[in-house]
Amino acid sequence: MTDQASTRVLLVDGSQLITEGLRLSLHRTHCFRVVGIAHTVAEAARSLRGTLVDLVVTDFDVPGAGPLRTVRDTAQYRPSARVVVLSNADSPSWARAALDAGAVAYLLKTSPVAELLPLIAAAVRGAPATIDARVGSLARLPARMPPPASLGRLSAREFDVLAEMAKGMDNARIAQRLFISNDTVKTHVKAILRKLGARDRAHAVAMVLGESSEAFVTT
């Protein structure tokens, strides 16, 4: 693994504010060198094809394609690079999907920089796969298990709904938390069940998290 002092980093996030903040924070450590910044999946792919990178720090759902596309593109174009996913969602299902797609860490953007940087540095050194300790229901997650192959077909909003389902939220609560209507939630749930090939919502959560449905779904 690359010496941390010479780590070449690609930052990928739809928000320029996020990428600039990360660039400045990484630069101050004198341990990383940001060699590229991308705000869309297409920009990230071009950077990966044309720039040598050791580490990719990316949002879970970068504009321009489905969730985790940049993680998969990294595996294709720069298989030796390590990927850290930053997300606003403390969702076990999102964390599971990120690690199974090839990321080595799933960290929360709300974490203080003083906490994020050591975890990113550990990822560079080859530390075991890491999930932010504040991710909900983490204690219930067993060792990594491959998710259904169709998980990658879910849209970003369907991931949102599935994450809330995994927390035991009913349709009304999901609608309230995601600022959408009950009918829209029902539409997303139907799409999730169809894409995962699940019998019902409890089965869908169990398929993704590898746990008994009763542990996650209350309605």
Query: What is the total tally of β strands?
Result: 6
Helix content range: 40-55%
Which strand order spans the largest sheet, edge to edge or round the barrel?
A: 2-1-3-4-5-6
Uncertain ranges? 137-147, 211-219
Structural class comes to alpha/beta
Any overview of this molecule?
The protein has 219 residues and is of the alpha/beta class. Helix content is 44%, strand content 14%. It is built from nine helices and six strands; from the N terminus they run βαβαβαβαβαβαααα. A six-stranded parallel sheet has the order 2-1-3-4-5-6, with helices on both faces. The model is unreliable at 137-147 and 211-219 (pLDDT under 50). Residues 147-212 form the HTH luxR-type domain. This is Response regulator transcription factor. Residues 8-124 form the Response regulatory domain. Keywords: DNA-binding, Phosphoprotein, Transcription, Transcription regulation. The modification 4-aspartylphosphate is found at residue 59.
Overview in brief:
This is Response regulator transcription factor. The chain is an alpha/beta fold and 219 residues long.
